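ping. complex inputs:
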Amino acid sequence: MIGISHYLILSGLLFSIGFIGVLRRRNLLMLFFATEVMLNAVNIAFAAIGSYYGDLSGQMFAFFVIAVAASEVAVGLGLLIVLYKKYGSLDLEVIANMKG
Amino acid sequence: MYEFIAFYVFAISTTILFLITVMSKNVLYAMTSLAAGMVMISGFFFLLGADFLGVVQLIVYVGAVMALYAFAMMFFDATKDIKEKHSNPALVFLLGGLMALVFVVIFSAPIIGENIEALYPVGGAAELVANAYGPGMIAGNTHDVGHILFTKYLVPFELAAVMLLVAMIAGIILAGKKMDHSLTTNDDEYEYEDEILKEESK
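pong. complex structure:
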């Protein structure tokens, strides 16, 4: 039996990988990939904690996270297509029109 | 023993695959490694005894979400390498490393709430299954999940259904406008050809 800390440390590492992706990516599609990585990392933590306590709530929350991720992708990709039609690019440097 | 081997194989492969996702310059490589990493993540769910969650992960993430990304990539130029201008890459890795450190410290710290009781314990559907199928029938993970989902989590389940419907309509409306115009090829040629065809038909 693997301890819960193994799963949680792995989840933290994967979340940090996704976080680095969100920070360093300048392309919107790649930014979406990085968010998917973060959502998956959180799902691992939910399932691990749920199984550690013998509780099903963790799995339930993971299900709802998956549902939210699916709808996020549907709306987000629609927005990406609209942006691509407008600007011809998905680069954040091109799309950004508020210079701060 | 086998559990250890499986865990470390899955852990190392997910980490490497997600690093490729985050670092790769090519959209196609990033997407493929993301899909492969999600398959590996479903392995963790099977290890943790969450069979139904693992299957849902395979169907929804690897099947539906990745297919959606693949279709969306056809609208954009997927073959070109993405050029990204990094103004300060060292700062990104410093922040990311600090985040990783904080997460690992938080997660590896001893859990303070020692006397946490399971609100919806595993095996809650055992009696129900025994009544329905006779004694000796063991309630699996799917029985438990169904039992909890359609009793305690019914309202969130319905809300998720409405949310998915809203997302579907939003996706159709956002992406569906001017679908007959190509994004990547030159539009003018096609309009010109259309005009020629119209004149010929007259």
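DSSP finds eight helices and no strands in chain B.
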